[in-house]
Amino acid sequence: MKVYHGFQALESIKYPVVTSGTFDGVHLGHKKIIKKLQQLATTLDGETVIITFWPHPKYVLNPSNPLKLLTTFQEKSELLESLGIDHLIRIPFTREFSQMSSESFVEDILVKKIGTRQLVIGYDHRFGKNREGSFEYLQTNAARYGFEVKEIARKDVDRLAVSSTKIREAIVNHKIHLANKLLGRFYQLSGVVVKGQQLGRKIGFPTATLEIAETYKLIPSNGAYAVLVGIEGRKYAGMMNIGVRPTIGLAEKTIEVNVFDLDQNLYGMQLNVEVVKQLRPESKFNDLKELSSQLSRDRNQAQEILINHLQQ
C-alpha cells in the first residue's frame, strides 16, 4: 500500500475507486465499505483509494473536548494495508479545510487531484462545509464530474449495529469483549517498554511498563486482562494490568504487561498488545502476598483463554 501525506507526491492511479472517511478503528462497518471498494476495483480493473483526515476532525473542531481514538495513524495504516488497500491519502484537517464546500471538495480533490472514476460512500456519509454534501448531491452531479457513485445501503450498515462511538463506550465500560466483536479483531495497544518500579519482579511476576506516546489513544478501563504480545515478530501469551495499583498506594495510572515464558530484558523494545479478554476489574488487596496469589489465578485463567489463539 502506498501512503501519501497530502497530494504533492501523489502518483497517477489506475482507474481510482475511492472512498473517504476517518476510519477510526477500521471496524466491521468500515470493512463493509472496503469490501465493496475492492469488488468494484477488481471488476473494473482499477485500484482502491482511501482518503482519510488527520488529525481527526473533532480534535480541530472541538478542542475543548478532545476525542480519544481507537487507532493511531500508524495502526490505521497497517490495518488498511492488511486488508489489501492500494492507496491511502492522508489529508491534513484544519479549520480552513473544514470550510471547503462540498463542490470544491469534489472538483479539487476527487476529480482534479485523484481522477476518481468510482466513489463509494456509506448511506449517511456527508462531506464539505456543514456536511452539506450527500449521496443525492453526488448522484445528481456525477455525470458532470465524470465518475459513478455507489452507496452502501442503510440496511447493510444498520444490520451490523457497529460504530466507532459504540466501540469506545464498550472499551471504557469493562466490555472489551463487545469492542472486539464490533471491531472484528482484538483491540490493540502499541508502545515502548520503559523502566518501572520493578515491584512485579519482587513478587514473582515481572512486568514491562508500557509507554504509549500517542496521548489521544483510548486506553481500556482499569483491570486485569488476558493479552497476546507481539515482540520482534513473535507472539506470546501474557496478562496486562491497567490502573493505579491501589494495593501499594500509587496514584499514577500505568500499563503493566507480564509476558509468559519469556525471560528477556525488554527495555526500549516495541510491544504490540492485543487485548483479548478482561479477567477482572482493578482491585485492592490487603498485602503483597494476597496480590501474588490473585496474580497466580489470573495467569492460570489467562493461559486457558489464550492457548487456542496462540495455536492459530
Name the beta content range.
25-35%
Determine the fraction of residues in helical runs and give it as a percent range: 25-40%
Strand element count: 12
Structural class: alpha/beta
Q: Point out poorly predicted stretches.
A: none
Task: Report the end-to-end length measured between terminal Cα atoms.
Answer: 26 Å
- Shape summary: elongated
* Sheet with the most strands: spatial strand order: 1-4-3-2-5-6
Compute the number of helices.
Answer: 11
Please, what is the average pLDDT?
A: 89
Our Rg estimate from Cα atoms comes to: 22 Å
Helix and strand pattern: EEHEHHEHHEHEHHHEHEEEEEH
Main sheet record: 6 strands, parallel
Q: How would you describe what is shown here?
A:
This protein has 312 residues and is of the alpha/beta class. Helices cover 35% and strands 26% of the residues. The chain contains eleven helices and twelve strands. The strands form two sheets. Strands 1-4-3-2-5-6 form a six-stranded parallel beta sheet, sandwiched between helices. It has a six-stranded antiparallel beta barrel with strand order 7-8-11-10-9-12. Strand 9 and strand 10 (234-243) form a beta hairpin. Helix 8 (164-172) packs antiparallel against helix 9. The two termini are 26 Å apart.
Note the main attributes of this structure.
six-stranded antiparallel beta barrel; 11 helices; 12 strands; alpha/beta; six-stranded parallel sheet
Q: What is the topology?
A:
Elements (H helix, E strand, L loop, with lengths): L1 E4 L10 E5 L7 H17 L2 E8 L2 H5 L11 H10 L4 E6 L2 H4 L3 H13 L3 E5 L12 H11 L2 E5 L1 H5 L5 H9 L3 H8 L3 E8 L4 H4 L5 E4 L11 E9 L2 E10 L10 E6 L10 E12 L6 H23 L2
Parallel strand pairs: 1-4, 2-3, 2-5, 3-4, 5-6
Antiparallel strand pairs: 7-8, 7-12, 8-11, 9-10, 9-12, 10-11
Helix pairs in contact: 8-9
